[in-house]
């Protein structure tokens, strides 16, 4: 009996050893328990300090790039440095396990929507005159009344539409607010109405002016995120501005200058339609700008007839495609260009390549021919038009070149693009008059395409000739 107490336990006549299945089940259960325990403990022992270090690193990163608290990862997260315009701000937790917050602008019911949102004051001496900067942000829109994601239309250029998308803006001392980043286009029908879906990227760039070099000590520039329709909340995250390192960086981002090319992202090689919109105020025909593959453009018969010196050109991987049923000749792709480059007497050449399609109400399309010789006739081919505007409140002014004549008028170019690699050319020459040069804004857009037809567009260039 003593042996049974202090040594080996007494034998149990009813004892049955565990089966192989039971031993495996017990081992797997114990392993799962230990693994789960380690994961939970690691969040506090390793991951949490790592996140804190990342927050610290991001704080330093943001300080270097002018925007403060653009990631909303403070300890604890906060709304520091941000202020509301026409509503109020609060933080919204995006994920329970990891401190991941975003800035929410609610109560946006006071017009106008172009200035309603959130802003931050940035010291003007953070920017270097004449230097280029990229702008990045992410937003999620949701209906203030229903709480469901709201999908804006990134092809709408103007900020007063019920489907306008948000922009990032900068207001410098004694100057008007300027849009410097726009919502990137996407297929709006692909998003699922869930809390973690529907985030959109805002991308843009700007060159800080030399005129602000003499700002006084303590001067600030105002960076804001606005323009979503009233009654729509804006959830903002990952806001930062960083300097471009060299001219190659400026070009790879899609930006151009007076000396190189006035058209930003004219070749679609950014993989999106940044800086391009559709002229008008939106439509009910589901129009959009898509990015299509376009590695080679073959201009075809003209080469063999001796009328063209180019048979094939490797012009990159992408092209723009205007899709959906167009119901007006003037509803074409549009871009704002730098009007300050358009000096009196300067001469500019505008070139592009295009393909032409017939499109029905259901979106079905087929290659089609168009009239290249007469840009004012029915079934004319795409050409460019430039509008000049001075949007002064008391004295607005406007003028337009109208649809410009295509200088490529050889019959060989008027054909049905029956193969995917067949493209036509657009060539214009524009001399800037005194009347044009006095306007403060300029817009180039595709015109003269009949309702029910669409086009692909690529390699848009506007260069200073003389």
Give a written overview of the molecule.
- With 466 residues, this protein is an alpha+beta fold.
- It has five helices and 23 strands.
- The chain has helices spanning 2-6, 20-64, 247-252, 301-304, 434-437, and strands at 83-85, 88-95, 100-106, 117-123, 132-143, 167-171, 177-183, 200-207, 220-226, 232-243, 277-278, 288-293, 296-298, 312-314, 318-323, 333-337, 347-359, 365-367, 383-390, 397-400, 424-431, 441-447, 453-464.
From the structure above, extract its key features.
single chain; 466 residues; alpha+beta; ten-stranded antiparallel sheet; six-stranded antiparallel sheet; 5 helices
Number of strands: 23
What is the rounded Rg? 29 Å
Shape: globular
Task: Calculate the mean pLDDT score and round it.
Answer: 79
Please bin the fraction of helical residues. 10-25%
Note the beta-strand portion: 25-35%
Largest sheet: 10 strands, antiparallel
Counted by DSSP, the helix tally is 5
